[in-house]
Design goal:
Elements (H helix, E strand, L loop, with lengths): L2 E5 L2 E3 L3 E3 L2 E5 L2 E6 L11 E5 L4 E4 L1 E6 L19 H6 L2 E6 L10 H13 L3 E6 L13 H7 L3 E9 L9 H18 L4 E6 L7 H8 L8 E4 L5 H12 L4 E4 L4 H5 L5 H10 L7 E4 L5 E5 L5 E6 L4 H11 L5 H6 L3 H7 L15 E4 L6 E6 L2 E5 L2 E2 L12
The structure holds zinc ion.
Zinc ion binds next to loops.
Length: 396
């Protein structure tokens, strides 16, 4: 078995660990500790001298429209599928794929196939069953069966609330759907996640709070996203998080959305920490390949941009450089926190036994220079290494 020994890196697990050696074997982190390299030499050991750069867990992006999304301005506004190189080059090694508004021209089978394709390209990829609507589309005929019978399925979503594009779900419809995910999770040994797309409607988190008040469902089953959409929604999100819930901020944005009242993910993170929201209940996701609509003053759609998976890395950089958040805290919101909330204990951490999904970042610019996924370097010192039949090493 080939071993990789990484030396002289500032290791963030995401907690700062100093400069221990990190040994990778069989796709996992075998050991983290001082002077592990002493007994390791020979042809079967690849030694990487990090030269003081930062070694961090690969990012876990909890919401990506991997097969494409959009379509809300007609067929010409459908968006493209995720490029695995775009993800890996921006430090993301695990993605959760989901459908959105369009479950008519897009399907869960296509989502599943795209997830498997991305896995073959070296990304770790899971999916949610369902979409914005209740009743949701499924692969097997029921959400519970999808959870139990399909390994890649870890939850349902994005289920839309407080949005004109939602199916206007009732309290009991949402509670029943969440119960299916919860029980399906119990039966399959998965945590079970109900990913909630919160729109710009005045109801905000009201439906979610009603479901929790009128059921025995645990608050951490729900994972509401786009909480940085407006200041009013942030207030509702802080209340939700202080009662034990988790909240997610969307990193992809546009100048137009910011002018309309959206709060940058990096700013939302700082404000939330200042409000006393526990760090482990906050995550960032990219919403990559989703459409970001522009409206003219008359309220009509006049253009779209596409969410970018690199926005996650950008938000972390901004959180550190512009908002003064300690690097390890910003890092936790895209590594250990989403991994724990999604029930992926081997992801998002640097510790013995965890999956070897690792990044080497420049110590100053935080630029991604190398990406390892499942113990293999896919991007190494700025060079791509071939992985799929369509991948040519170093192709742009
Ligand atoms: Zn959404």
């Amino acid at each position: 078995m080939m071993l990789t020994l990484i030396k002289n890196a500032e290791v963030f697990a995401p907690a700062p660990l100093g400069r221990p050696d990190v040994v990778v074997a069989g796709g996992r982190i075998a050991a983290v500790g001082d002077n592990l390299g002493r007994g390791l030499s020979g042809e079967l050991v690849q030694t990487v001298d990090a030269g003081g750069r930062r070694l961090v867990p690969g990012f876990v992006d909890s919401l990506v429209h991997i097969a494409g999304g959009g379509g809300e301005g007609g067929f010409d506004t459908r968006t493209a599928a995720l490029s695995h190189r775009r993800a890996l080059g921006a430090g993301v090694t695990t993605v959760i794929g989901a459908l959105g508004t369009d479950a008519c021209t897009r399907s869960l089978r296509e989502l599943y196939g795209t997830a498997r394709q991305l896995c073959a390209s070296g990304l770790n990829c899971y999916i949610h069953t369902g979409c914005y609507e209740i009743p949701p589309p499924t692969l097997t005929g029921s959400v519970r069966d999808d959870m139990v019978l399909v390994d890649s399925v870890i939850g349902v979503g994005e289920v839309a609330i407080a949005d004109h594009r939602s199916s206007q779900p009732t309290r009991s419809e949402l509670a029943k759907l969440a119960a299916d995910v919860h029980v399906g999770g119990l039966l399959s040994g998965k945590k079970g996640v109900v990913c909630i797309h919160v729109g710009d409607g005045a109801q905000r988190l009201q439906l979610l709070n009603q479901v929790l008040a009128g059921s025995e469902l645990p608050i951490q089953l729900f994972y509401p996203t786009h909480i940085n959409r407006s200041r009013e929604l942030m207030l509702a999100g802080w209340d939700f998080a202080k009662r034990g819930g988790v909240i997610d901020f969307t990193a992809s944005t546009t100048e137009m959305l910011l002018e309309m009242g959206e709060i940058k993910a990096s700013v939302a993170l700082r404000l939330s920490l200042q409000q006393g929201v526990p760090l482990q209940r906050i995550t960032l996701s990219s919403d990559a390949q989703g459409s970001l609509p522009h409206f003219n003053p008359g309220g009509q759609l006049d253009g779209l941009q596409v969410g970018d998976i690199a926005s996650l890395h950008g938000a972390i950089k901004e959180a550190v450089s512009a908002e003064g958040i300690p690097f390890e805290q910003a890092l936790a919101t895209v590594t250990a926190n989403p991994a724990a909330i999604l029930g992926l204990p081997a992801k998002g951490r640097i510790e013995a036994g965890a999956d070897a999904d690792l990044l080497l970042l420049d110590a100053d610019s935080l630029a991604v220079q190398s990406t390892m996924s499942g113990g293999r370097w896919l991007l190494h010192e700025g060079h791509w290494l071939a992985r799929t039949p369509f991948d040519h090493a170093d192709a742009k």
